[in-house]
Each structure stands twice: as structure tokens, then as C-alpha cells.
């Protein structure tokens, strides 16, 4: 009945009340690992057709070469998803914006506006501020005492405060932002809850943009307003802020918490992070990014025309999804034992943790900087750091586009 209704009336993703079982596999894990089906599909089907009750067809690519090919092709696909919103759900097409869901030439213009802020040279000036945030949060962890939640005291506040400072936002509403940030990536309760969170969070940012229009602040939002004036609309500016804000803290928070769990598995890992050279730390961070791949699936690509792709006949409007977790575990690139964490792995770069192509995460270097500052200081400050509960009792997000752990009680 549901299939017939959707095929007759179309589908508003924001009104979707559940996620079909067939679509859950790319978002689910066994511990830190993808489900076995991902490796099976990667070995036997370059492009796996997902059985969906929609009027369009969706395919999942799981190999590194296939994912890179799709993500590199800027001409054959569109990232704009607004045609899937009918306007009567929790979110409408007017709530969808930002770099991830925008096509050239608008995407090109908007990305050009913010790219200078995310160069290595510009990022370097943020290092003292990030270091201060890290030290403050490690103080908070120590004050909370053994059994404290590392997610709440360290992993979330560091990237959250960094992004707020970068954009020039007041982070007094951090609890509301934090909850909405997690909800918007979680598909457990279907599209309604996730897109409702998108709508609510964007309202925060529209308000922030409106205030900055009247009195531009010292951060990135204020700078863009001073530079661009009315040439950039409130909608586009809020979309930029939304993409940078949500993409810049939820993912890094997950990496700090999950990275801590991985490094605590072996004293040698923790010691390498604690006492290693900058080159050692860089290598460990890159392997953590590959191994964890917290952004599980890249932004959906909609085929602009009929085409033959990896042996499959794709029709215009079909959706191509790239499994970043699957691509980063591809033995053709990762080498032997791709499902193991190995700081000595060669090569340690070339992963797709930040995506690829024109939609590659613009904050990749910022995320790397936060990890390179936070993790070594955490393990130096607390040499006896350990999990306060058995690892099997930790609760991981099981149906979220951004993988993470709900709580991380630690002792020290």
C-alpha cells in the first residue's frame, strides 16, 4: 500500500516516517566496522541497486575507484534535492541549502566566498584559540572526575566552540544546537524527525544572519556581509553557515570520541599519540580518518541523463550514493587487512573520509588541526586514561549518516 501511494503521489522526504530495511545497511555497523554486506557488494557488485519504495532508483557504490569516479564527475550529476520536498512536511524546499545540496554555478560562487578562510595559512591563526579550548575542556574533564563523559566534556565542546568562534556565533544556545545537530543526521525515526531538525536549526542560523546584517561581527559571517553586502542573500548565507556549522562540529566530535576508543585498545597506540613526533601524529590521525569514516555516505548524486555506469544502465533522476566507509575499507587502496586499524599502514592518505571533488569537505584541514591538537594533549594530560565501562556496553549510533558514540565514560 505504501509503495502504491508513493508511486502515485510522489514522495516528500521530510514526511517519510520510516526508513525501509533495505536502505539501512549503509548506515549500520558492527562495532566500528561496516556490515558484512558492504564488503560483499564491493567484491561482487561495483554498483548495488537498493530496493526502495520510491519512484526513482538508487544505487550504492562501495569501491574506492567507483566512489571516486562518481564524486569527481561534476557534469553528470546534480546535488540539488529540493525536488523531493513537496512543501507540506516538517521541512520544505526553502529549508534546503548550503554547499552540499547546491550545484554550479551557484555552488562555485558560494564556495569561492568561504574557501580563503579555510586555507592552511588562515587555519594556522586558529591554532592558539583551539589549543585554549582544548586545555579548558581537559580542565573540565579533570574537574568532573573519573566516570565523566568524554563526549560531553571534551569531544563535543572543542569543535563546537571552534565553529562558533569561526563564524562569529554566540554559543549560548549550545544545548539546543547540540541536540538538533545529532537529530538531523539520525535516520532512526525516518525523514520527519531528521528534516524537522534541519528546519529548526536553520531557523537559529537565519536569526543569526539577520542580527549580523544589522551589526556585522568579527567572524566569518560578518566578514562575508561586509565583503558581499546584498550580493549574497540571507538564504544563501544561512546555507553556508549551516553547512560549515553542522559539518564542522558533529563530525569532529565523533572523531575525537571514537578516536579515543580506538587508541585505548592498545597502549602502543596511545603512546604513539602521546609521545610521537608530529609526523607520527599526522599518520595516526589519517589512519583514524580512514578507519572510522564517520561520514558514512556522501551527499546523494542525481543522474542528469541516462548513462551506462559500471555496467548498469542508469536513468536520468536515479540516485547514486557513495559509501565512504566502504570505499575506505577497499583493499585495492587500503592494502592488507583493511578492516584493521594500523597506524603504520602505507599509504596513510588518499582516503575519502572528507569526500572528493567539488563537494569535498571545505573544513577538512580544520578538522585535522583539531584532532592533531586535541588527541595528543588528551593522552599526555591523562596518561592513565581508560574506559570506565566495558567496551561492549558503549552505545553507538546505529542509523546515522554521521557515525558516533552516545556517551564515553572514562577514568583517569
Short synopsis of the structure:
The protein has 412 residues and is of the alpha+beta class. It contains 17 helices and twelve strands. Strands 3-4-10-7-5 form a five-stranded mixed sheet. Strands 6-12-11 form a three-stranded antiparallel sheet.
Question: Can you describe this structure?
Answer:
- This protein is an alpha+beta fold and 412 residues long.
- It is built from 17 helices and twelve strands.
- It has helices at 2-9, 36-44, 64-72, 106-114, 120-124, 127-144, 150-155, 157-167, 174-184, 190-214, 220-228, 234-263, 267-275, 278-292, 324-328, 331-334, 364-381; strands spanning 29-30, 33-34, 47-50, 58-61, 77-78, 148-149, 301-303, 307-309, 312-314, 319-322, 386-387, 409-411.
- It has a five-stranded mixed beta sheet. Strands 6-12-11 form a three-stranded antiparallel beta sheet. The chain has a two-stranded antiparallel sheet with strand order 1-2.
- A hairpin with a 2-residue loop joins strand 8 and strand 9.
- Residues 1-8 and 191-197 have low confidence and may be disordered.
Amino acid at each position: 500500500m505504501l509503495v502504491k501511494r508513493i508511486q502515485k503521489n510522489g514522495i516528500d522526504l521530510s514526511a517519510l516516517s520510516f526508513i525501509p530495511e533495505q536502505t539501512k545497511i549503509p548506515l549500520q555497523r558492527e562495532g566500528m566496522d561496516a556490515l558484512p554486506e558492504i564488503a560483499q557488494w564491493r567484491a561482487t557488485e561495483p554498483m548495488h541497486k537498493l530496493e526502495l519504495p520510491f519512484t526513482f532508483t538508487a544505487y550504492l557504490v562501495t569501491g574506492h575507484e567507483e566512489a571516486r569516479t562518481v564524486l569527481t564527475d561534476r557534469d553528470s550529476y546534480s546535488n540539488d534535492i529540493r525536488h523531493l520536498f513537496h512543501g507540506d512536511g516538517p521541512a520544505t524546499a526553502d529549508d534546503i541549502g548550503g554547499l552540499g545540496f547546491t550545484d554550479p554555478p551557484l555552488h562555485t560562487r558560494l564556495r569561492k566566498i568561504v574557501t580563503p578562510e579555510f586555507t592552511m595559512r588562515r587555519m594556522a591563526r586558529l591554532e592558539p584559540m583551539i589549543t585554549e579550548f582544548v586545555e579548558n575542556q581537559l580542565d573540565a574533564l579533570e574537574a568532573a572526575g573519573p566516570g565523566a563523559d568524554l563526549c560531553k566534556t571534551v569531544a563535543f565542546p572543542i569543535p563546537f566552540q571552534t565553529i562558533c568562534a569561526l563564524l562569529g556565533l554566540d554559543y549560548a544556545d549550545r544545548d539546543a544546537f547540540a541536540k538538533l545537530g545529532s537529530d538531523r543526521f539520525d535516520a532512526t525515526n525516518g525523514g520527519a524527525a531528521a528534516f524537522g531538525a534541519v528546519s529548526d536549526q536553520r531557523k537559529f542560523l537565519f536569526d543569526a544572519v539577520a542580527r549580523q546584517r544589522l551589526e556585522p561581527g568579527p567572524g566569518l559571517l560578518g566578514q562575508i556581509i561586509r565583503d558581499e553586502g546584498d550580493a549574497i542573500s540571507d538564504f544563501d548565507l544561512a546555507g553556508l553557515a549551516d553547512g560549515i556549522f553542522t559539518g564542522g562540529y558533529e563530525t569532529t566530535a565523533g572523531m575525537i570520541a571514537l578516536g579515543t576508543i580506538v587508541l585505548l585498545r592498545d597502549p602502543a597506540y596511545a603512546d604513539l599519540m602521546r609521545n610521537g613526533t608530529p609526523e607520527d601524529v599526522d599518520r595516526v590521525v589519517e589512519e583514524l580518518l580512514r578507519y572510522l569514516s564517520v561520514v558514512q555516505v556522501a551527499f546523494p548524486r542525481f543522474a542528469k541523463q541516462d548513462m551506462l555506469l559500471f555496467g548498469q544502465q542508469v536513468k536520468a533522476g536515479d540516485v547514486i550514493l557513495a559509501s565512504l566507509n566502504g570505499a575506505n575499507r577497499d583493499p585495492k587502496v587500503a592494502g592488507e587487512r583493511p578492516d584493521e586499524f594500523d597506524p603504520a599502514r602505507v599509504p596513510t592518505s588518499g582516503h575519502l573520509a572528507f569526500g572528493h571533488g567539488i563537494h569535498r569537505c571545505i573544513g577538512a584541514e580544520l578538522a585535522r588541526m583539531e584532532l592533531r591538537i586535541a588527541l595528543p594533549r588528551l593522552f599526555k594530560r591523562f596518561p592513565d586514561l581508560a574506559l570506565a565501562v566495558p567496551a561492549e556496553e558503549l552505545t553507538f549510533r546505529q542509523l546515522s549518516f554521521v557515525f558516533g558514540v552516545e556517551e564515553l565514560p572514562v577514568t583517569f
